[in-house]
Amino acid sequence: MLNISRKIKAIGASGLLLFAVLAGTAAESVQAAQAGVGAQSSQSEVFRIMALGDSITAGYEPGMTDVNVKPYGYAERLLEQSWYHGRSELINYGILGLTTAGLRNYTEAIKQGTPATPEGIQAGLRDPRITQFAALTPQIKAELAEADLVTVTIGGNDVSSLFLQAKELGEAEFQSQLEQRLADYSANLSAVLTNIHAINPQADIIVADQYQPAPKFAVKESYTQLMDAAARLTEAADSVVAALNAAGTPVKVAHVASRFAGVEVSLTHIFGEGAADFHPTQQGYETIARVFSEVQWGQYSVPASVAVFPAPASMSIVVKGVELNTPNKPILKNGQNFLALKDVLNAVGATGKWDNKTSSATITYGGRTVVITIGSKLMKVNGVNTAIDTPAFLQKVGKEDKTYLPLAALATGLGFDVNYSSHLRTAFINP
């Protein structure tokens, strides 16, 4: 997108932040280099995720206007989960303030493959990227056609104003308006999912239902009424998906609402009188990601770097979906993460030979031969010299000297795909 690499395209936030995130992959590359990871080859198939929807998809949290803050929502977490299964990338087109009608218009424009206008998508959208997102519809159509998984969160903006007015409306008026909004939601959602399937019939499509975000103490007597309304939205989503499946359009529902029920105070931000501004907390976004991951892969994995308290000093390493468990802990040196050569070679199935005379290791994997020499800022890849920022070194572990290599060199030399999550303090390595 906009000359951004296809490595990771995670776009979404608020205000000034959104402009910074449009160039987010550059920052991601810097972060990866600092972590000692990087490089990707076309050796393996890439699993492509596209996230469509509203501010929940964008990963927005109230007050997120700092240009130095990058969104870390459910979609970014879902990308991390996908790294457990192989090479993956994310493209996020979450739009702040989007309704189901707006997403219907947007997916219609994407299906047509012609540039749209912001007004043609939805009048009054405040997302500063909307002009660019509208103009990119031909490119988005091509990206959507290549996606393996499409996730959708939409509908909160359809009913949020009604939820906020619940205390002022009589029961009959509330139910009347709810019925109309449910009808519109169902019609629009059906059209959105049909459009996505028409563009890419092979993609897995998962849509989330709508949770009720306000805790009981904030809405008091309206809580039961709002919970009943949220249940109706879940029923509507289930009904739409059941009808589409019956008609040959396979879609799944991520039942997020049930995970928020009764624990809204820990999973949502509550701002203003009567919960006037509410979005998921980081725990809430993790909950949403967990549901999507369980629907897609049957599980949600948590690395040791975050699964235990206090967190271990070293980072976690996940190789081909399996967390590396070794007494040879990763070492941080000069801002780079180093791993013991033997452990990684065993994990990925590569072969290696050590030469005491030259203090070098010859590593073979997938048609590549890499020679790395202790202390040298050059390595040979199939006989060609390649620069290394920080050289390999020997580290005393017990009575043995272990060869430690920077992840970036390993990825570059052997053609692995290596991604580092600073939030999880985990490197994911996929051949």
Automatic annotation (TrEMBL):
Alphabetized CDD domains for the sequence: SGNH_hydrolase (cd00229)
Gene3D superfamilies with a match to the protein in the record: Copper amine oxidase-like, N-terminal domain, SGNH hydrolase
Organism: Paenibacillus donghaensis
Glycoprotein keyword on record: no
Copper amine oxidase-like N-terminal domain ranges (all copies): 318-429
Sorted UniProt keywords: Signal
Protein name, per record: Copper amine oxidase
Domain SGNH hydrolase-type esterase as annotated: residue spans: 51-286
